[in-house]
Amino acid sequence: MGLDDIRRRIAAAETRAGRASGSVTLIAVSKVQPEDRVTAVLDAGQRVFGENYVQEAQGKWPGWRARWPGVDLHLIGPLQSNKAKAAVELFDAIHTLDRMTLARKLAQQIDQQGRSPQLFIQVNTGDEPQKAGILADELPVFLSSCRDLGLSPQGLMCIPPEDEDPLPHFRLLRRLAQEHGLPNLSMGMSADFETAIAEGATHVRVGSAIFGARSYA
Hints:
- This protein is of the alpha/beta class.
- The chain is built from 9 helices and 8 strands.
- This is Pyridoxal phosphate homeostasis protein.
- Pyridoxal 5'-phosphate (PLP)-binding protein, which is involved in PLP homeostasis.
């Protein structure tokens, strides 16, 4: 395990799927990882990182970005509407657009700041009541409403149910993206990113397989 191993596995999965080399973006999920692990991965040349919490990212990344230029920062955790301003300031991509109240806040901040992070709509492919994301049949209306606000979502994101085969969920997300002309698919994590790549993932979110197990202490 580690960054080099994950990069090799991504390259092999691209080849098996008949996809161009480099067509998949690796998002190194650095949430709650100790500083020495993250800086080692930065030193190794990784420049795309994912964080779950705006406040945690605010405390870490401005300093790291000053030391390692060219970092692309992705928000992959739930975003509270009252954190929209900070999220637009800090992140280059937001993967968890999932309700109109948030869409309106993001549209307002994007307009005010003149900064436009790449947006992914989170789809709750497993219809799990406890999980964020819009339902698949809500996507056409939600996407249209986002576009009416001046937003331009570029992709979809999903987190399949933990106890289910992820393959049908990846296929559903791919079909929805194709139907709506969205080029990007954020799907696949440490345990299933190769399956996701075979199904068209453009962004995979890998944390523990790069950094080691997280400690929430």
